[in-house]
Amino acid sequence: MTVARLFFSFFLASALSGCLGGNDFSDLQAFMDQERARPKGSIEPLPKFQPYEAFTYGAAALRSPFQPPIKIDLAAQQKGSKDIKPDEARVRQFLEGFNIETFEMVGTLANDGATYALVRGAGGVHRVKVGDYLGRNHGRVTLIDEAKVDVTEIVPDGEGGWLERPRSLTLKERS
Question: Where is the signal peptide (predicted)?
Answer without folding.
Answer: 1-15
